[in-house]
Structure formats: C-alpha cells, structure tokens
Amino acid sequence: MFCRNQTTRATIARGSALEMEIRRGKFRRSVLLDTLQDSNIQKKIDHEIRMRDGACKLLAACSQREQALEASKSLLTCNTRIMAYMSELQRMKEAQVMQRVALRSSDAGPTDDRLPCKGKVAISDLRIPLMWKDTEYFKNKGELHRCAVFCLLQVGAEIHDTDMVIVDRTLTDICFDNTIVFEASPGFELRVELYSCCSEEDYSTGNTPRKLASKLSSSLGRSAGKKLRVAMDPGACSPISNGGGATLLLPLPTVVGPKYHLLAHTTLSLSHVQDSFRTHDLSISGNEECSHWVPLYGSVCCRLAAQPHCMTQQMMSGCLKVKQFGGDPQSWTNVYGVLKGTNLFCYHRQEDVEANIQPAFTISINKKTRIRASEKDLHNKAQSICISNHYGGEEVTHTLSADSREDTHRWMEAFWQQFYDMSQWKQCCDDLMKIELPSPRKPTLVTSKQGSLYHEMVIDTSDDISTVTDILARRMQELELRSQLGTSPPWMSLFEDSPGCPRTHNRLPHSPLRCPRPGLLSSEASLTSDSDSPCSTSPCSRHSGWAEPLSLSSHSSHFRPRTLSLDAKLSTLRGRGCGGVLQCSCQPPSSSSLAPIPAQRVPQATLSCSNSTSSNSSSEGSHSPELSDGTPFSHPSSARQSLRNLRAKLDPRNWLQSQV
Amino acid sequence: MVCAVILLLNFGYQTMEMPFCILKGSSVHDVGDSALHFTFYQRIEICKLRQGEHLILGFSIGGGIDQDPGQNPFSEDKSDKGIYVTRVTPGGPAEVAGLMMGDKVMQVNGWDMTMVTHDQARKRLTKKNEDIVRLLVTRKSLEQAVRHSMM
C-alpha cells in the first residue's frame, strides 16, 4: 500500500490523490524538458532545410562546374543531416512515449545506470590509396577522367563533410586535410562514407529547361519544408500518434546538376582509436561500369584519436586531509585535491590551481589503483578513503579524509565514476591523446545562400588608382631629371595654390608637376591603348574639339566636378598640364598657353580633352573601379594590397561591378 | 508588328514618365502570353550629384559583353550580357530618380548599353561633361506590376 518514493524521500499511499499529483507533475516536467530538446532538433532541421533550399537555388543558378559540384556536395550533406535529425527526433519521441508509459504503469524506480563521460573524438589525415591500372597511369592516354570526391563522417546525428577533392589519373592517393572533431560517448560509431561524382558532363543545361528546373527545385524544396514543419509541430500530429512510428516521407526535390554516389564506406569505433595512423578496410559499392567509379585500393588510413572528458576536465575538487599510511597518525596534511585524468593532484591551496603552481604531491588513480572506504577511524569520526598504488613493487597507501560525510560520499562517487569511465574508454585513458583543433578554414568561394555573395566582391580600387598615379608620379620624377624644360609654363602658377583647382593626390610633390607635363602625357599616351575615343562622345552634347571646354567653363562659376573613376584621376593630371581650361575657375588660359606643350602631344591632347572620360582607360583592359559608397579617394594602404586587388580584377571568374 | 503603348498607371514615381511597353507579336488581339511579348521600359533621369571633386550617380553596375553572364544574380536569362544595376546607394541621386536594383540598363543618353563591355558602360555613365543622364531601363517587377493591374 505504501511505497517509498526514493526521489521525494517520503512514503506515499499508492493510488492516492497525492501520488497521482506527483506523477502528473513529473509527467508535465518531463514533457517540458522533452519539448525543449525537440525544439532544438526542430531548429536544426529548419536550419538545414533553409540551407538545402539555398543549395538548390545555387545549383540551379551556377554555370561553372566547380561551383555546381560544391553546391551538390552541400546539398547531399544537408539531406543527410535532415534525415539524421529526423530519425533522432523520432527516437526521442519514442523514448518519451516509453517513459510516459513507464510512469503510468507500475512504479519504476529511478534508473541507477551509470553513464560514462563523453569525450572528443577526432579523425584526421584521411588518406585513401588508389589503384590505377598500370597502363592508364603511365601512358596518360586520352582525356583525363576526373571525378570529384569527398567524405561524409557521421557520429549519431552529427554529420560533417570534408572538402571536395578532384581525382584523376595523376593522383595516387586521395588525401583529405580536414580534422573533424565530434563529441561522443565511448560506444560511438563513426561512419565514414566516400562519395564520388564524375566531373565531366555539362550539367548547367540539362534536358529540362533551366527556368522550369529551377522553379521545380525551389518550389518543391519549399513545399517539402512546409510539410515537414507542419509535421514536426508538437501541437499537430506527431509521427508517433498516427499509427505509431510512421516514418515521414521526405520528398527530395529533383535537381538538375551533378549527383554524388556512394563509393565506399566503413565504420570505426572505440577499438580503432589509437594515437597513431592506422589502416582500415573499406567496403566498396559500385564497380568499374559506373560513371563515378574511382579505382580504390580498398583501405583507408587515418588517425582516430579520442580525448575523454575524464582525462581533460576536472572531475572533482575539494578540500581534503591526507595522511600517508604508516605515518604518524597525527600528520594530516590539509590539501586542495583535484581529480583529473589519471591523477589526484593535491595542492597546498585552492589558489594554486589557477596559478599553475606545482601541486604538493600527486596520487595516481589508474586502473591498478585500489580504493576503499574504511570504517570509522578510531581517531576521527568521519569515514576515510584509502587509496593504494603500486609504485615500483612497493605498495603505497594514502588515506584521505573529507570534512563531512557527504563530502566523503561525493569523493567516493567521483572515484567510482572515474573508474567506470576508464573502463569504458579503455585505451584512451592510458595517456592523453593529442587532438589538434582544425585551424579556421579559408572561406570557400561558394556559399549556399541566395547567391548574393557576388555583392560581397567589392573591388576597392582607390588603391589601384593610386597605384597608377604612383607609377605616373614616378615616371614624372624620372622625366623631370631628364627633361630640358627649365622654366615651368606660365599657366602652372595657376595650379599652385588656387583653391578652385582640384588636387588629385597629396602624394605628388609640387616640383614634378612643373616640368614633366610632357612626360606625363607621353606616358599617358602609352597607356591609352585601344580607346573608343571617336565614338564615345554623347550624341546629345554639342561640343567639338576645344570649343566646348571654353564655353562650358564660361558657364559654370565653379570648377567642373570630377567623377569618381580612374579616368577622372588621370584626366585631372592631364588637365593640369594641358587643359587648365577644363578645370580652373580662374582665368582660362587661351590657346596660346598651349604653346609650351610640345607638338607631339597636341593631337593626343585634343583627343583626350574632347573625349572627357573615355580615352584614358588603363592598360589593364576592362577593369572598373568600385568604391565604397560616397567616399572620395582613400589613400592606398600598401602595394601588396593593390597588387592583390589587381589580381582579383584580372581573375576572369569575378563578375565586375562598378560604382558610378 | 511593333507598337508602343503608353500605360497610364501611377507607380508613385512623381518625377518620371510613366513606364511604357512595347508590344511585339502577331496581333494586338492575341491575349495569350505566348503570342505577345511584353517588354516594359522605364525612363529614368538622374541628376549627378557633386561630392567634393566628383560627380556621382549613386549606383553600381555589373555585366557587359566581356563578363561572365552566368554570375549575374539579377538576370532571368543567364546568357544575358546586358548591364544591370547591382546596387543603389540609399538616398543617392539614382534612388531619388527611381532607379532600382536589378534594373537592366538599355540606353544611356541615347547610347546603347546592350552590347557594350563593362568599361564602355561605365564610361558612358561617367562622362565629366554631363550633369544629367537619361537612362532607359527595364525591370521585371514592372512587368509583373502592370500585368497585375491589368487583370
């Protein structure tokens, strides 16, 4: 009639109202906890569905093979993750149901299972040897049959993928540089799957028209996601409630693009964990006839290491009194003990732990240690714990005593847990294995969001403009030394300090501006390669040759503003030399001021002045500067950065954007 | 048969002409989408803004016959090598004039922009001697909006 409810430490009449209340209370609490876990998984599922939608869109939108392969890989990873989360969710719901059933039925006592601590499991340096036919490998005949491969690693619901590697005949091994770390319990199963895809066909234009294909893939993805969300909603029908354990069908969107196929797989567990490289067998699916075939040797080498938490974290700490057995019964030492790994470190004071001071002494706790709690000592009331070890044939026993009974109990519990963990993690507890955390990866070119990454490719060319002007300035300085012009042209005085005139670059010193005007223009002449000078004048404007600048400058009371471009920069430099007419609000020099300019420049000048912005394109070809919103030129940071920008612009893969 | 139809619809752009569309097709009486091609154009007049030493329009362009059309996120047809507006500076002259991100620029001050390189396009927009640029743009949303209002 009465039952002892251990958790509440009280006797309750069975079947009484109080009991039901308590049971219901626990029930409600467990429901709350469960829904919390549920919502976590649901959030993850939602996230993966969004990622998948993004990957589908990207796949439909990209035209380059590499991008398509990457997107397809993300798609596969997302799909696998969704499946894993869904099965996890189902498993959890089933467990909940079982729990509720257990509560409703006869009193099941609190489970007293001891769980082993979790740990970090890291797999790194994956290497899969290949076995090409001799003839293929050495003769290198015909086209190179290339395949894209990557690995999918799964522990429970945690799935990670490695980078993609393109494999062809010239490779002897497939190497994956990634280090992947999981959080797992000792009974883990690490499933390694190798996926491959032939990277030769053209998938960008499949049989289905692009628009239709993209519409299909995106719309199916969204509707599938909606269905999934509705089904996952705890308020609505859960998979359990309809028919119990009904699996949800996940309609996968049909995607035009490269498809990966499973090539080989293997499963690793605790027994494979070792601090060095080991070779494991692979189960290969597929044969030579498949398009995605890669001739595998049949094994995989990797380093699988594990760091259980009991080895890396402080499992227990507190104040203790330690006495060495056989010593003076009164010689108790007060220490602060920290149980970590295979040792019990005893520090003089608690502060020493943080201060990293060496402990007073260390008692090892390993599988050979014997610990027992002794009965009340004659000399003190509390229980004490005896720890005995064999140190080189000699048995050494330490006696520990805690402040209170509860403390002793807790220390014993900690020791029991430690022993249990060590028995579960086996060889991982002998020595601490090193796990190198993966360094932050370079951001990959392809992201799986809406494809608006192209907006992020800001090409900051204020550096470039300055690079070019630097080059010009240097040339000007060179030419200054060589030039014969002793006196500066009379119009130069106009540019010295008049506020109206635009100053191009603070770096350019005044003196070079005086003389090497000719030099500047001639170097510019070399820069202007294939300009569309004749036809770039707007049909609306009426200017021709020199007439326009004069007339316009007479109109405007302020100087002509510049547009933010390389052209502008160069033309101001040029303009200073030949066409003060264009810039200066001050008295525009008549054409007689052009006299000092050497004859060979005149045709060029005419051309360049009439075609205001067009003819001074840089020799870099079709590059266009992109600047941040509304800011004028910023000073360049370093030559290296501008070189990098230059390279970025020269890269044909970039889709240039220019600010106007 | 090509005829220009000016639609008297108010889009809220007070400073601009109404968008107009060019009907191309077998006959005006065909209502089915397959028979008629609607292309809606919008004229946008941007007054350049002086900012310090420079004249800016306040938007960014992408595309060109020398660029990879597949990377254009705005075009429906991924082989379209036209010039598209990729960004509009908030509060800038282009935004004030009604230019929107994703617009395809067909003409600038009378010059064609459908068959130009990227640099040529940029130059045509940034002529120093022009204070105003008149763009002819086309945008997908216009098409949809007009179609919607016609139903």
TrEMBL record, chain A:
Q: Does the keyword Acetylation apply?
A: no
Q: Which organism is it from?
A: Oncorhynchus mykiss (Rainbow trout)
Keyword vocabulary terms for this entry: Coiled coil
Enumerate the spans annotated as PH domain. Answer: 313-420
Name of a matching Pfam family: Anillin
What range(s) does the REM-1 domain occupy?
17-98
CDD domains per the UniProt record, alphabetical: PH_rhotekin2
Compositionally biased, Polar residues: which spans? 634-644
Spell out the PROSITE patterns in the cross-references.
PH_DOMAIN (PS50003), REM_1 (PS51860)
**Compositionally biased residues, Low complexity:** 520-540, 606-628
Give the CC-aspect GO terms: actomyosin contractile ring
Q: Which GO terms describe its biological process?
A: actomyosin contractile ring assembly; mitotic cytokinesis; septin ring organization; signal transduction
Q: Where is this region: Disordered?
A: 496-540, 605-660
Q: Which gene encodes it?
A: rtkna
Q: What is this protein called?
A: Rhotekin a
Automatic annotation (TrEMBL), chain B:
Keyword vocabulary terms for this entry: Acetylation, Cell membrane, Cytoplasm, Membrane, Nucleus, Phosphoprotein, Wnt signaling pathway
| InterPro entries associated with the record | PDZ, PDZ_sf, Synaptic_Scaffolding_LAP-MAGUK
Q: Which SUPFAM superfamilies match?
A: PDZ domain-like
Q: Which residues form the PDZ domain?
A: 43-140
Q: What GO biological process terms are annotated to this protein in UniProt?
A: cell-cell adhesion; establishment or maintenance of epithelial cell apical/basal polarity; neurotransmitter receptor transport postsynaptic membrane to endosome; neurotransmitter receptor transport, endosome to postsynaptic membrane; receptor clustering; regulation of signal transduction; Wnt signaling pathway
GO MF entries:
protein kinase binding
Q: One GO CC term of this entry?
A: adherens junction
Q: Which domain of life is it from?
A: Eukaryota
Gene3D superfamilies attached to this UniProt entry: 2.30.42.10
Pfam families per UniProt: PDZ (PF00595)
Keyword check for NAD: no
Q: Where in the cell is it found?
A: Cell membrane; Cytoplasm; Nucleus
Indicate how the chain sits in the lipid bilayer.
Peripheral membrane protein
The name this protein carries in UniProt is Tax1-binding protein 3
Task: Tell me which species this is from.
Answer: Oncorhynchus mykiss
Q: Which gene encodes it?
A: LOC110502506
